[in-house]
Amino acid sequence: MIEQTYLIFGDLHGRILPAFRLALAWQREHNEPLAGLLQVGDLGYFPDASRLDKATKRHAERDPLELGAQLVAARSPDADALFAEPDLPQALWFTAGNHEDHVALEALAHGAGCTRDDFPVDYYQRVRCLRDGHVATLLGGLRVGALWGIDGQAPNSRRKTPPRGRISPRSATMLSYESFDVLLTHDSPRDAMIVHAGSDAITTVLQLARPAFAFFGHYHGEGRLDSCDFAPTQVYHLDGLEFRERGGCAEPNSVGVLRWGKEGGRFEYADPAWLRTITRHNWQHR
After folding, report:
1. Which residue in 25, 14, 20 sits closest to 36, CA to CA?
2. Which overall architecture, per CATH, does domain 4-285 show?
3. What is the pLDDT of residues 108-147, one digit of tens each?
4. Quick check: bond before 252 cis, omega within 30?
5. Helix (H), strand (E), coil (C) string for 158-177
6. CB atoms within 10 A of CB 193
7. How many other β-carbons are positioned within 10 Å of the β-carbon of residue 24?
8. What is the SS3 assignment for 133?
9. How many whole angstroms separate alpha carbon 215 and alpha carbon 185?
10. What are the extents of the domains in the chain?
11. What's the pTM value of the predicted model, to 2 decimals?
């Protein structure tokens, strides 16, 4: 098995084209091809602006990048130019967070280009949603499991999340009996970031399925991961890629690099100094 490299992204909230552009720049400047992109939910999939949730609508009034899903859900000049790039990674695979149009996602789940374990959500079939509770095998044999939504049971969980934005116990049970290498969730294992927050269901999946890696988003800050033990699984939090650092730079720890081969894998966060060279002002030209 030839080693394959993937970039892992935190919450994007619509910044789909910037993520692909960043990946192209990373390949070119590190002289290392990418097999694909993985993303931990809150992709910001709102193809219809009339269906934005309250938080996304508020942020979009200040930052049009929040509406980026509309540039790929239907054909657009910006996406045409990007997806014509010859060295573009195969696809971006994501799990669903709480800030998505879940009705729109489920309407696409049985359309053209679908497989048993994932389905495209864009005109170009390069942005693919991993089915809740399923495992997809990607290029190089990497097996990626996905669990949609956030916890609704912990004392500090959010109470106003729509039902489909919450973790499904049935999907968690399905994953617990599967064998896979990477788990993508939006929420954290229980108490991993904030005491009395996060998901017991995710913790149980890690204990039973024992994937090599687990990645999640949703939270801001460092959290409590350093004091947690999920062995043998290596668990990492990805900050959101929102270009809100000083000068509009990409956030540290918002992108990671996973290299996977026959001997297993290794992960590291993208160099923060390099990430600072990607900004909301120049991403289209990198």
Report:
1. 20
2. 4-Layer Sandwich (3.60)
3. 999 899 999 999 999 999 999 999 999 999 988 999 999 9
4. no
5. CCCCCHHHECCHHHHHHHHC
6. 21
7. 16
8. coil
9. 6
10. 4-285
11. 0.96
